Automatic annotation (TrEMBL):
<feature type="domain" description="HTH gntR-type">
    <location>
        <begin position="8"/>
        <end position="75"/>
    </location>
</feature>
<keyword id="KW-0238">DNA-binding</keyword>
<keyword id="KW-0804">Transcription</keyword>
<dbReference type="Pfam" id="PF07729">
    <property type="entry name" value="FCD"/>
</dbReference>
<dbReference type="InterPro" id="IPR000524">
    <property type="entry name" value="Tscrpt_reg_HTH_GntR"/>
</dbReference>
<dbReference type="InterPro" id="IPR036388">
    <property type="entry name" value="WH-like_DNA-bd_sf"/>
</dbReference>
<dbReference type="GO" id="GO:0003700">
    <property type="term" value="F:DNA-binding transcription factor activity"/>
</dbReference>
<dbReference type="InterPro" id="IPR011711">
    <property type="entry name" value="GntR_C"/>
</dbReference>
<protein>
    <submittedName>
        <fullName>DNA-binding GntR family transcriptional regulator</fullName>
    </submittedName>
</protein>
<dbReference type="InterPro" id="IPR008920">
    <property type="entry name" value="TF_FadR/GntR_C"/>
</dbReference>
<dbReference type="InterPro" id="IPR036390">
    <property type="entry name" value="WH_DNA-bd_sf"/>
</dbReference>
<keyword id="KW-0805">Transcription regulation</keyword>
<dbReference type="GO" id="GO:0003677">
    <property type="term" value="F:DNA binding"/>
</dbReference>
<dbReference type="Pfam" id="PF00392">
    <property type="entry name" value="GntR"/>
</dbReference>
Length: 216
């Protein structure tokens, strides 16, 4: 008997819809993503839903129980700690490696900052925030650093989106604080040595420590 396989376009569109719901908070942490219920709601068969869930598991947005049921990933304090430690290892190094290139041209970072200033939602700020850091990783010229970063990107977006939404409810200043912090980083790339850029990025990442919800 042949196993049903969904078309790539149907799987991709299903994954995109589920991804958006997870990242914007519509699907709450720990929520059950039952294949049949999701298929009915989206008007597709169960096959693209199943394949989309597997894809989202690889991105770190979905997790499966021992019985095979899919749930929205609910990041634990240990998950937060591990992501934080990895950012601290990758991003200061990438900043040092990218510093010479940015000393000559910071156009990509400045365009990102301009887009962040125009952001109309907290979710847009989150995406642009991560894009800012990804530009630095990619400019480092180290393909393995970029590969490691990309392997974390889904969970980082999940983590940062939740933190940004919580922070916005408390302070209403998520956009401005993001712009101010990133503006300082751009200015350092324009004028400072690679080692100074590395140190400033480390300080930037260390500043997120107070946002980590370490209590269960």
């Amino acid at each position: 008997m042949k196993t049903a396989v969904a078309s790539p376009s149907r799987t991709d569109s299903t994954a995109s819809l589920l991804r958006a719901e997870i990242l914007n908070g519509s699907s709450a942490p720990g929520a059950l993503l039952a294949e049949s219920a999701v298929a009915r709601r989206l008007g597709v068969s169960r096959v693209p839903v199943r394949e989309a869930l597997f894809a989202l598991e690889r991105e770190g947005l979905v997790e499966f129980s021992p019985t095979g049921r899919a749930f929205v990933k609910d990041l634990t304090p240990q998950d937060f700690e591990e992501l934080y430690v990895l950012r601290l290892a990758l991003e200061p190094l990438a900043s040092r490696l990218a510093a010479q290139s940015f000393r000559a041209d910071v156009t990509l970072l400045e365009e990102n900052l301009a887009a962040t200033r125009r952001a109309r939602s907290v979710q847009d700020v989150t995406l642009l925030d991560l894009d800012f850091h990804q530009i630095i990783l990619e400019t480092s010229g180290n393909a393995r650093l970029v590969k490691l970063w990309n392997s974390l990107r889904g969970e980082l977006e999940l983590w940062l989106g939740r933190l940004h939404r919580t922070h916005q409810m408390q302070t209403k200043e998520t956009l401005q604080q993001t712009v101010d912090a990133h503006q300082s980083i751009v200015e350092s790339f324009k004028t400072q040595t690679p080692s100074t850029c590395e140190r400033l990025m480390r300080e930037h990442i260390l500043g997120w420590r107070e946002w980590l919800p370490l209590a269960p």
